[in-house]
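=== RUN LOG ===
request id: a7f3
mode: sequence -> structure
chains: 1
length: 103
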Amino acid sequence: MGEQKEEQNASLLNRDQILTVGDLEAFKRQLFEELRKFLKEKPTREDKQWLRSADVRKMLSISAATLQNLRVTGVLSFVKVGGIMLYKHAHIVALLETGGGTK
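=== RESULT ===
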């Protein structure tokens, strides 16, 4: 039993072990690889079919009043679900490509 416990303690990290620059670089590479995998799996704003008002305002760099004006004038179509305004991502992209012309 004593030998088994010593082997177990030897395999565990403890505060007296020395951490080398190579260990840190290996950890950095592993961490960045995990982050890349995570970010590839995470849906981005462009992957969403429907966007909320805050997303649209950030995407277009406009104020809430300007967004309301685009809705009222019919330049930007939307759907209201409950109290939430939703906008199709494709419509926002089309608005950007046409320069904000009328519907």
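=== NOTES ===
The mean pLDDT is 81.
Residues 21-41 form the longest helix (21 residues).
=== END ===
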